[in-house]
Design goal:
By secondary structure, the chain is α+β, with helices and mostly antiparallel strands. It has a single domain, classed as Jelly Rolls (Sandwich), CATH 2.60.120. Helix content is 19%, strand content 44%. It is built from one helix and eight strands. The protein has one helix spanning 2-26, and strands at 30-37, 44-48, 57-63, 67-76, 81-90, 99-100, 108-116, 126-132. The strands form two sheets. A four-stranded antiparallel β-sheet has the order 1-8-3-6, with no helix packed on it. β4 and β5 form a beta hairpin. It is extended.
Length: 133
């Protein structure tokens, strides 16, 4: 009886891993699109995106220090812009919520971020941009 329970448990674990793997392969995948090193002199940065893929959402990740965001503008290949008001401080190691882009999946040309300058000390934050297909 215990052997059957163990076999069923092992089977369920393998099926769960297989389903999770397929969801990652064919479902929502985050792709690294670029980064900017915050120098403390400017109050905004622009991240150029060199991908021919189409995305339906973006997410910003922070390393090395907190960033207080005010505004994010996504520039699409079509020439349209999407202005996002973000009034949030993201700590080092944190991320913004996934930010849905309007319409169907779209090609991103660049993303501009406006932010405040908290006291970073010697460590300057790095701003990472991710896109979801």
């Amino acid at each position: 009886m215990q052997k059957k329970i163990r076999l069923i448990g092992l089977f369920l674990v393998l099926m769960t891993c297989s389903l999770a793997s397929n969801a990652q392969r064919y479902g929502n995948r985050w792709e690294f699109l670029g980064q900017s090193h915050v120098d403390g002199k400017n109050d905004h940065d622009k991240i150029q995106v060199d991908s021919n893929e189409r995305f339906r959402a973006i997410q910003l990740g922070i390393k090395g220090g907190a960033i207080e965001f005010y505004r994010v503008v996504v520039h699409f290949e079509s020439g349209q812009d999407h202005d996002i008001q973000i009034r949030e401080t993201i700590r080092a190691g944190g991320k913004t919520r996934p930010i849905d882009l309007p319409g169907d999946r779209r090609r991103i040309r660049s993303v501009e971020c406006w932010y405040g300058k908290p006291s970073w000390g010697r460590n300057r934050p790095t701003l990472n941009l991710w896109g979801m297909r």
